[in-house]
Automatic annotation (TrEMBL):
<keyword id="KW-0472">Membrane</keyword>
<keyword id="KW-0812">Transmembrane</keyword>
<feature type="transmembrane region" description="Helical">
    <location>
        <begin position="42"/>
        <end position="62"/>
    </location>
</feature>
<feature type="transmembrane region" description="Helical">
    <location>
        <begin position="93"/>
        <end position="112"/>
    </location>
</feature>
<feature type="transmembrane region" description="Helical">
    <location>
        <begin position="69"/>
        <end position="87"/>
    </location>
</feature>
<keyword id="KW-1133">Transmembrane helix</keyword>
<protein>
    <submittedName>
        <fullName>Uncharacterized protein</fullName>
    </submittedName>
</protein>
């Protein structure tokens, strides 16, 4: 279980760094004009695109690392992390920690039950 959580947290941290980079690129105005809501429009388009692509990349990365139930970790963790980062819009530097924490949490919650576990305990 520890390996699974560590790998999931690592993949989440990398996706968080990608989110931070995407946001800083948009905020700098390098890929959008700051006139007439141009950068806001780019962010409104980029956030859901990142959510979908991040979930797919996270799923494939966890699958390549032989993490069991990779897609059950990647999809909800990415979607929750993107929503959290939209709500924490002013603190994009926390993206790697938010993504890593949510990936680790979902990895724990979706982990396989131990063999021989007693029901009700």
């Amino acid at each position: 279980m520890g390996r699974r959580v560590a790998l999931a947290a690592g993949v989440g941290a990398l996706l968080g760094l990608a989110w931070w980079g995407m946001f800083e690129l948009l905020a700098s105005g390098a890929v959008c004009s700051k006139d007439d809501w141009g950068c806001l429009q780019a962010f409104v388009i980029a956030a859901p695109v990142f959510a979908v692509l991040g979930a797919v990349v996270g799923g494939f990365a966890l699958r390549a690392l032989s993490v069991s139930r990779a897609w059950l970790v990647a999809v909800p963790a990415t979607l929750m992390a993107v929503v959290a980062m939209v709500l924490l819009l002013g603190m994009t530097f926390l993206a790697f920690a938010v993504f890593a924490a949510l990936y680790a949490l979902i990895a724990v919650l979706t982990g396989a039950r131990r063999e021989g576990a007693v029901e009700g305990s």
